[in-house]
Amino acid sequence: MLSVRDLDLYYGDAQALAGVSLEVPAGAIVALVGANGAGKSSLIRTIAGIEKPRAGRILFKDEDIAGLDSHEICDRGIGQVAEGRQLFPNLTVLENLELGAMLPRARANARRALEEVFALFPRLAERRRQLAGTMSGGEQQMLAIGRCLMGNPELILFDEPSLGLAPVVVQEVLHTIHVLNGRGLTILLVEQNVAVSLKIAQHAYVLENGRIVMSGSGAELLRDDRVRQAYLGL
Description:
six-stranded mixed beta sheet, four-stranded antiparallel beta sheet, 10 strands
């Protein structure tokens, strides 16, 4: 579904990504792991159209989307659950969700999508009139995922979905990702909890200093001594 080929990204003269290539098959969960500053969020932002690459290709369903504006990429079926959630705190839960359905691809089925989001997250239905900024971190993450789903995505980019959340909430979020994948959604997951992300991913890549240095199945990387020492403290 998604193929990144030889991607270079610069911030001024500083190179953030160097020749990055990866594949995300349709229906899979693919994890991207690495230390802070390795370039994971930069890669997610580039796929989403927030950053513009200097070189390389980003193919989504065989169409090169590198350099397109983010709203165009969203309307092609790539949704993003951004790091830090990026909600509108002074809007209600319902208003935040409705904004997610503003894409042309999503407008016709907005009502059904809203029902599905409320079925997935009953707490959002209960608090539909509550301001997003007054909710707990876990509830805000539910809302961020729900808003993404309102856009009718086929591929979802998750950027650090468990950041700042209590352990029990982290498990809920990762379970939700598993459920969404079971419903046919393709997932590219950047997650600080390396062990958990590798356990749920069919395939994974290790990013260091803007370069892919290792790849394999999630289970293979979990067993790899270099990964265990660098990221799992084992």
